Known about the structure:
By secondary structure, this protein is of the alpha+beta class. The protein has helices spanning about 25-30, 35-45, 115-130, 155-165, 240-245, 290-300, and strands spanning about 10-15, 50, 65-70, 85-90, 95-100, 135, 145-150, 170-180, 185-190, 190-195, 200-205, 210-220, 225-230, 270-275, 285. The two termini are about 30 Å apart.
Amino acid sequence: xxxxxxxxxxxxxxxxxxxxxxxxxxxxxxxxxxxxxxxxxxxxxxxxxxxxxxxxxxxxxxxxxxxxxxxxxxxxxxxxxxxxxxxxxxxxxxxxxxxxxxxxxxxxxxxxxxxxxxxxxxxxxxxxxxxxxxxxxxxxxxxxxxxxxxxxxxxxxxxxxxxxxxxxxxxxxxxxxxxxxxxxxxxxxxxxxxxxxxxxxxxxxxxxxxxxxxxxxxxxxxxxxxxxxxxxxxxxxxxxxxxxxxxxxxxxxxxxxxxxxxxxxxxxxxxxxxxxxxxxxxxxxxxxxxxxxxxxxxxxxxxxxxxxxxxxx
Length: 313
Protein backbone atom coordinates (compact mmCIF):
# COMPACT_ATOMS: atom_id res chain seq x y z
CA UNK A 1 0.00 0.00 0.00
CA UNK A 2 1.49 3.32 -1.00
CA UNK A 3 0.23 6.86 -1.44
CA UNK A 4 1.94 9.93 -2.79
CA UNK A 5 3.25 12.46 -0.26
CA UNK A 6 1.31 15.73 -0.06
CA UNK A 7 2.35 19.29 0.82
CA UNK A 8 -0.59 20.06 3.09
CA UNK A 9 0.56 21.57 6.38
CA UNK A 10 -2.86 21.35 8.06
CA UNK A 11 -4.63 18.45 9.73
CA UNK A 12 -8.33 18.72 10.58
CA UNK A 13 -10.31 17.50 13.59
CA UNK A 14 -14.11 17.56 13.86
CA UNK A 15 -15.26 18.12 17.44
CA UNK A 16 -17.26 15.05 18.59
CA UNK A 17 -20.24 15.31 20.98
CA UNK A 18 -18.19 14.15 23.97
CA UNK A 19 -15.88 17.18 23.60
CA UNK A 20 -18.69 19.73 23.33
CA UNK A 21 -18.05 22.67 25.66
CA UNK A 22 -14.35 21.95 26.15
CA UNK A 23 -11.73 24.66 25.69
CA UNK A 24 -9.65 24.77 22.50
CA UNK A 25 -6.53 24.17 24.59
CA UNK A 26 -8.10 21.07 26.16
CA UNK A 27 -8.84 19.62 22.72
CA UNK A 28 -5.31 20.38 21.53
CA UNK A 29 -3.80 18.57 24.51
CA UNK A 30 -6.44 15.83 24.59
CA UNK A 31 -7.41 14.06 21.37
CA UNK A 32 -4.75 15.88 19.30
CA UNK A 33 -2.00 15.18 21.89
CA UNK A 34 -0.11 18.41 21.27
CA UNK A 35 2.63 19.37 23.71
CA UNK A 36 2.72 22.78 25.40
CA UNK A 37 5.76 23.67 23.32
CA UNK A 38 4.02 22.87 20.05
CA UNK A 39 0.88 24.75 21.10
CA UNK A 40 2.98 27.83 21.87
CA UNK A 41 4.68 27.59 18.48
CA UNK A 42 1.38 27.21 16.67
CA UNK A 43 -0.10 30.16 18.56
CA UNK A 44 2.80 32.39 17.55
CA UNK A 45 2.62 31.29 13.90
CA UNK A 46 -1.19 31.50 13.70
CA UNK A 47 -1.27 27.79 13.05
CA UNK A 48 -4.55 27.07 14.86
CA UNK A 49 -7.96 27.63 13.26
CA UNK A 50 -11.46 27.02 14.60
CA UNK A 51 -14.05 27.13 11.83
CA UNK A 52 -11.59 29.10 9.70
CA UNK A 53 -10.57 31.68 12.32
CA UNK A 54 -7.75 31.98 14.84
CA UNK A 55 -9.33 31.25 18.27
CA UNK A 56 -8.34 32.08 21.83
CA UNK A 57 -7.07 28.94 23.58
CA UNK A 58 -9.73 29.41 26.25
CA UNK A 59 -12.64 29.52 23.80
CA UNK A 60 -15.27 26.79 24.18
CA UNK A 61 -15.92 24.50 21.23
CA UNK A 62 -19.19 23.02 20.04
CA UNK A 63 -19.85 19.55 18.65
CA UNK A 64 -19.40 19.67 14.88
CA UNK A 65 -16.86 22.52 14.93
CA UNK A 66 -13.79 22.09 12.73
CA UNK A 67 -10.42 22.60 14.38
CA UNK A 68 -7.34 22.77 12.15
CA UNK A 69 -3.69 22.81 13.21
CA UNK A 70 -0.65 23.44 11.03
CA UNK A 71 1.56 20.61 12.28
CA UNK A 72 3.24 19.90 8.92
CA UNK A 73 5.43 22.98 8.43
CA UNK A 74 7.72 23.17 5.41
CA UNK A 75 11.19 22.08 6.54
CA UNK A 76 14.54 21.63 4.82
CA UNK A 77 17.31 19.25 5.71
CA UNK A 78 20.95 20.31 5.82
CA UNK A 79 21.92 17.07 4.04
CA UNK A 80 22.23 16.69 0.28
CA UNK A 81 19.94 14.05 -1.34
CA UNK A 82 21.71 10.99 -2.76
CA UNK A 83 20.35 8.08 -4.83
CA UNK A 84 20.74 5.44 -2.11
CA UNK A 85 18.45 2.43 -2.80
CA UNK A 86 16.00 1.17 -0.18
CA UNK A 87 12.66 -0.60 -0.15
CA UNK A 88 9.51 1.48 0.30
CA UNK A 89 6.72 -0.41 2.08
CA UNK A 90 4.31 2.47 2.81
CA UNK A 91 4.14 6.26 2.69
CA UNK A 92 1.59 8.98 3.39
CA UNK A 93 1.74 12.67 4.32
CA UNK A 94 3.01 11.98 7.84
CA UNK A 95 5.02 8.77 7.96
CA UNK A 96 6.75 6.12 5.91
CA UNK A 97 7.84 2.52 6.44
CA UNK A 98 10.98 1.37 4.65
CA UNK A 99 12.99 -1.82 4.17
CA UNK A 100 16.56 -0.90 5.10
CA UNK A 101 19.42 -2.67 3.31
CA UNK A 102 22.62 -3.81 5.03
CA UNK A 103 25.82 -1.79 5.05
CA UNK A 104 24.41 1.72 5.50
CA UNK A 105 23.72 3.81 8.59
CA UNK A 106 20.23 5.12 9.17
CA UNK A 107 21.60 8.65 9.54
CA UNK A 108 25.08 10.25 9.56
CA UNK A 109 27.14 9.57 12.67
CA UNK A 110 29.52 12.42 11.86
CA UNK A 111 28.90 15.70 9.96
CA UNK A 112 30.64 14.73 6.71
CA UNK A 113 29.25 11.22 6.36
CA UNK A 114 27.34 10.49 3.15
CA UNK A 115 25.58 7.46 1.71
CA UNK A 116 23.14 6.92 4.58
CA UNK A 117 19.51 5.86 4.45
CA UNK A 118 18.56 9.44 5.34
CA UNK A 119 20.33 10.70 2.20
CA UNK A 120 18.40 8.17 0.14
CA UNK A 121 15.04 9.15 1.65
CA UNK A 122 15.76 12.82 0.92
CA UNK A 123 16.46 11.88 -2.71
CA UNK A 124 13.17 9.97 -2.84
CA UNK A 125 11.33 13.00 -1.44
CA UNK A 126 13.08 15.35 -3.87
CA UNK A 127 11.71 13.34 -6.78
CA UNK A 128 8.22 13.76 -5.28
CA UNK A 129 8.62 17.50 -4.88
CA UNK A 130 8.54 17.13 -1.08
CA UNK A 131 10.98 18.72 1.39
CA UNK A 132 11.39 17.73 5.00
CA UNK A 133 13.59 16.28 7.71
CA UNK A 134 13.96 12.53 8.19
CA UNK A 135 12.94 11.50 11.70
CA UNK A 136 13.49 7.78 12.46
CA UNK A 137 11.18 6.57 15.23
CA UNK A 138 13.60 3.79 16.20
CA UNK A 139 17.03 2.65 15.00
CA UNK A 140 18.61 -0.25 13.15
CA UNK A 141 22.36 -0.92 13.25
CA UNK A 142 24.40 -0.34 10.11
CA UNK A 143 24.38 -4.03 9.17
CA UNK A 144 20.88 -4.86 10.38
CA UNK A 145 18.30 -5.12 7.60
CA UNK A 146 14.54 -4.78 7.54
CA UNK A 147 11.52 -2.73 8.51
CA UNK A 148 12.04 0.80 9.85
CA UNK A 149 9.45 3.45 10.77
CA UNK A 150 10.08 7.08 9.76
CA UNK A 151 8.13 10.19 10.83
CA UNK A 152 7.90 13.00 8.27
CA UNK A 153 7.26 15.83 10.72
CA UNK A 154 7.87 16.64 14.39
CA UNK A 155 4.21 16.15 15.35
CA UNK A 156 4.06 12.62 13.96
CA UNK A 157 7.42 11.80 15.56
CA UNK A 158 6.05 12.93 18.92
CA UNK A 159 2.96 10.73 18.60
CA UNK A 160 4.88 7.65 17.43
CA UNK A 161 7.57 8.13 20.07
CA UNK A 162 4.83 7.96 22.72
CA UNK A 163 3.74 4.61 21.26
CA UNK A 164 7.34 3.41 21.30
CA UNK A 165 7.83 4.39 24.94
CA UNK A 166 4.53 2.76 25.94
CA UNK A 167 5.66 -0.45 24.15
CA UNK A 168 2.67 -0.42 21.82
CA UNK A 169 4.87 -0.57 18.70
CA UNK A 170 5.69 -4.23 18.06
CA UNK A 171 9.10 -5.01 16.54
CA UNK A 172 9.90 -8.61 15.60
CA UNK A 173 13.32 -9.73 14.38
CA UNK A 174 14.90 -12.84 12.92
CA UNK A 175 18.38 -13.81 14.10
CA UNK A 176 20.70 -16.72 13.39
CA UNK A 177 22.67 -17.58 16.51
CA UNK A 178 25.42 -20.04 17.31
CA UNK A 179 24.42 -23.46 18.63
CA UNK A 180 21.19 -24.89 20.00
CA UNK A 181 19.40 -23.07 22.80
CA UNK A 182 18.39 -24.87 25.97
CA UNK A 183 14.82 -23.55 25.74
CA UNK A 184 12.39 -23.35 22.83
CA UNK A 185 11.01 -19.99 24.00
CA UNK A 186 11.46 -17.54 26.82
CA UNK A 187 12.10 -14.02 28.06
CA UNK A 188 15.56 -12.52 28.56
CA UNK A 189 15.61 -9.80 31.25
CA UNK A 190 19.19 -8.60 31.55
CA UNK A 191 20.30 -4.95 31.99
CA UNK A 192 22.62 -3.50 29.35
CA UNK A 193 25.35 -0.89 29.79
CA UNK A 194 28.36 0.39 27.88
CA UNK A 195 31.48 -1.75 27.86
CA UNK A 196 34.25 0.38 29.41
CA UNK A 197 36.89 -1.58 27.47
CA UNK A 198 35.48 -0.88 23.99
CA UNK A 199 33.91 2.33 22.59
CA UNK A 200 31.28 0.55 20.46
CA UNK A 201 30.45 -2.53 22.48
CA UNK A 202 27.69 -3.01 25.07
CA UNK A 203 27.52 -5.63 27.80
CA UNK A 204 25.15 -7.12 30.35
CA UNK A 205 25.92 -5.32 33.60
CA UNK A 206 24.25 -4.73 36.94
CA UNK A 207 23.03 -1.16 37.10
CA UNK A 208 22.59 -0.92 33.34
CA UNK A 209 19.38 0.04 31.53
CA UNK A 210 16.51 -2.45 31.72
CA UNK A 211 16.41 -4.64 28.60
CA UNK A 212 13.76 -7.25 27.77
CA UNK A 213 13.82 -9.60 24.77
CA UNK A 214 11.14 -12.23 24.12
CA UNK A 215 12.20 -15.10 21.86
CA UNK A 216 11.24 -18.44 20.38
CA UNK A 217 13.22 -20.93 18.32
CA UNK A 218 11.95 -21.43 14.77
CA UNK A 219 14.52 -24.01 13.67
CA UNK A 220 17.68 -25.48 15.17
CA UNK A 221 20.65 -27.76 14.60
CA UNK A 222 23.63 -28.38 16.86
CA UNK A 223 25.48 -25.75 14.84
CA UNK A 224 22.95 -22.91 14.77
CA UNK A 225 19.43 -21.75 15.64
CA UNK A 226 16.99 -19.50 13.82
CA UNK A 227 15.43 -17.24 16.44
CA UNK A 228 12.39 -14.97 16.35
CA UNK A 229 12.91 -12.13 18.85
CA UNK A 230 10.50 -9.45 19.98
CA UNK A 231 11.83 -6.28 21.59
CA UNK A 232 10.04 -5.04 24.69
CA UNK A 233 12.77 -2.41 25.08
CA UNK A 234 15.11 -0.96 22.47
CA UNK A 235 18.62 -0.78 23.89
CA UNK A 236 21.62 -0.43 21.62
CA UNK A 237 22.66 -3.87 20.27
CA UNK A 238 20.06 -5.47 22.58
CA UNK A 239 19.49 -8.74 20.71
CA UNK A 240 23.17 -9.11 19.93
CA UNK A 241 24.22 -8.49 23.55
CA UNK A 242 21.58 -10.73 25.10
CA UNK A 243 22.30 -13.79 22.97
CA UNK A 244 26.07 -13.30 23.16
CA UNK A 245 25.81 -13.18 26.95
CA UNK A 246 23.92 -16.49 26.90
CA UNK A 247 26.69 -18.09 24.87
CA UNK A 248 24.85 -17.89 21.54
CA UNK A 249 26.28 -14.91 19.61
CA UNK A 250 24.85 -14.07 16.21
CA UNK A 251 26.52 -15.54 13.15
CA UNK A 252 28.81 -12.99 11.52
CA UNK A 253 28.86 -10.74 14.61
CA UNK A 254 32.57 -10.02 15.01
CA UNK A 255 31.96 -7.44 17.74
CA UNK A 256 30.37 -10.01 20.05
CA UNK A 257 32.31 -13.15 19.11
CA UNK A 258 29.95 -14.71 16.60
CA UNK A 259 31.13 -17.35 14.09
CA UNK A 260 32.07 -15.96 10.70
CA UNK A 261 33.09 -17.02 7.24
CA UNK A 262 29.62 -17.53 5.76
CA UNK A 263 28.09 -14.07 6.04
CA UNK A 264 29.78 -10.66 5.94
CA UNK A 265 27.63 -9.08 8.66
CA UNK A 266 25.73 -10.03 11.80
CA UNK A 267 22.73 -12.18 10.93
CA UNK A 268 19.92 -9.93 12.17
CA UNK A 269 16.83 -8.86 10.22
CA UNK A 270 13.88 -6.71 11.35
CA UNK A 271 11.10 -8.81 9.87
CA UNK A 272 7.87 -7.21 11.13
CA UNK A 273 6.58 -3.95 12.56
CA UNK A 274 3.08 -3.21 13.88
CA UNK A 275 1.63 0.02 15.27
CA UNK A 276 -1.49 2.19 15.28
CA UNK A 277 -1.52 5.12 12.86
CA UNK A 278 -1.87 8.09 15.24
CA UNK A 279 -4.10 10.16 12.93
CA UNK A 280 -6.09 7.47 11.13
CA UNK A 281 -6.40 5.28 14.24
CA UNK A 282 -5.86 2.24 12.04
CA UNK A 283 -3.86 -0.84 13.02
CA UNK A 284 -0.95 -1.16 10.60
CA UNK A 285 1.47 -4.03 10.11
CA UNK A 286 4.37 -4.42 7.69
CA UNK A 287 6.89 -7.14 6.94
CA UNK A 288 9.99 -7.62 4.83
CA UNK A 289 11.46 -10.99 3.80
CA UNK A 290 15.06 -11.76 4.80
CA UNK A 291 17.60 -10.52 2.24
CA UNK A 292 19.54 -13.01 0.06
CA UNK A 293 22.61 -13.29 2.31
CA UNK A 294 20.45 -14.13 5.34
CA UNK A 295 18.35 -16.64 3.39
CA UNK A 296 21.49 -18.23 1.97
CA UNK A 297 22.99 -18.65 5.46
CA UNK A 298 19.77 -20.31 6.63
CA UNK A 299 20.01 -22.79 3.77
CA UNK A 300 23.71 -23.51 4.33
CA UNK A 301 23.11 -24.16 8.04
CA UNK A 302 20.06 -26.34 7.42
CA UNK A 303 17.65 -23.97 9.15
CA UNK A 304 14.31 -24.51 7.49
CA UNK A 305 11.68 -22.33 9.11
CA UNK A 306 9.06 -24.72 10.42
CA UNK A 307 6.85 -22.32 12.34
CA UNK A 308 4.58 -19.60 10.91
CA UNK A 309 5.30 -15.94 11.73
CA UNK A 310 3.83 -14.98 15.09
CA UNK A 311 4.64 -12.87 18.09
CA UNK A 312 6.85 -14.71 20.59
CA UNK A 313 4.96 -16.03 23.60
